[in-house]
Amino acid sequence: KPGMKTADLREFGFDEGVFLPNAAFKPPSPYSPEFVIRSRMVNGKRENYNVDTGKKVGAGRERSYFWKPHIDLMNFPGTTQDFTYWPHTEELQAEYGYSTYGPDVESE
């Protein structure tokens, strides 16, 4: 959840889970684009812009969680680490592309 940006998810007693990676503890997923959005002052007003294009954007600074999403699997069956980036199998990685949508991390 947005309010858990600096929380270590291992402290909450989850057996397993599907989360957005916590930027305070983990770099972005290597499978997902990182849209670099910064703020600048224009005519006395703050506006967000895309660093890659220089164009103004309406959205704030965030990681992708719909299109080619950043997804972190915690204690997921078939994995050997506490946290593993999704897609986590060779089959899912081979299918991963521009039309990929990830698992629903906001189901509750």
Automatic annotation (TrEMBL):
Domain of life: Eukaryota
Species this protein is from: Rhodosorus marinus
Record lineage: Eukaryota, Rhodophyta, Stylonematophyceae, Stylonematales, Stylonemataceae
Protein name: Uncharacterized protein
